[in-house]
UniProtKB/TrEMBL annotation:
Name assigned to this protein: LysE family translocator
Subcellular compartments: Cell membrane
Membrane topology: Multi-pass membrane protein
InterPro entries the record matches: LeuE-type
PANTHER family: ARGININE EXPORTER PROTEIN ARGO, HOMOGENTISATE EXPORT PROTEIN
Chain segments annotated as transmembrane: 6-28, 48-69, 75-92, 113-139, 145-165, 186-204
UniProt entry keywords in alphabetical sequence: Cell membrane, Membrane, Transmembrane, Transmembrane helix
Organism, scientific name: Shewanella subflava
Pfam hit, one: LysE
């Protein structure tokens, strides 16, 4: 499994990125308010499956490059670090508006909800770029990849589940909190700062 020092960096970084309002979290909140938390969980299942596929594909793809082309991986480290810093800077500059999905027609069938969550997670190019940039630095080629990936994936699944559940069950109170003052902006800044620090650590590590 990954070193505890690496996990101490990964857990808070991914938590703040996950809890920051985005399309999936706003979707969970809107569905939670309109169709209830229990039915929203079907969307969560699809989203979690999509996120897991993206994470596994990202780690296995980059791990293959790490093993076969270590020189290229050194270049990817710098590119990944620069991209994470870019994400962090954009988070700092974000105005803090929530994704608008109100007014969209929602099919409440279970399969449709699962599909909606899955497509939202897997069709997001930023999600792919984020996973490719963030996850590989926490994987050591000197240890078996599978156990490390299992630990990181477990953390991702738990964090995403808790975040979506909080948004779905928070409903109107959470929306009021996020729309008040600079609350979203400060959440973005915390997550952005962590992204910048991890990006610098990745490039120089």
């Amino acid at each position: 499994m990954p070193d505890f020092a690496l996990l101490a960096v990964f857990i808070p970084t991914f938590f703040f990125v996950s809890i920051t309002p985005g399309m999936c979290m706003t979707l969970a909140m809107t569905l939670g308010m309109s169709i209830g938390v229990r039915r929203t969980m079907w969307m969560m299942i699809g989203e979690l499956v999509g996120v897991a596929i993206v994470a596994i594909a990202a780690v296995l793809g980059v791990a293959s490059i790490m093993l076969n082309y270590p020189q290229i991986f050194d270049i990817l480290k710098w590119i990944g670090g620069a991209y994470l810093c870019y994400i962090g800077i954009n988070m700092w500059r974000a105005r803090g508006k929530m994704a608008v999905i109100d007014g969209q027609q929602v099919n409440t069938r279970r399969l449709s909800l699962i599909s909606q969550g899955f497509i939202t997670a897997i069709a997001n190019p930023k999600g792919w770029a984020f996973m490719i940039s963030l996850l590989p630095p926490f994987i050591s080629v000197d240890k078996p990849v599978a156990p490390q990936l299992l630990v990181l994936l477990s953390i991702i699944m738990v964090t995403e589940s808790l975040s979506m559940l909080a948004y779905a069950s928070g409903g109107k109170s959470l929306r009021l909190f996020l729309s008040r003052g600079n609350n979203i902006r400060w959440m973005n800044r915390i997550a952005g700062s962590l992204m910048i620090l991890v990006g610098v650590w990745l490039a120089l590590g």
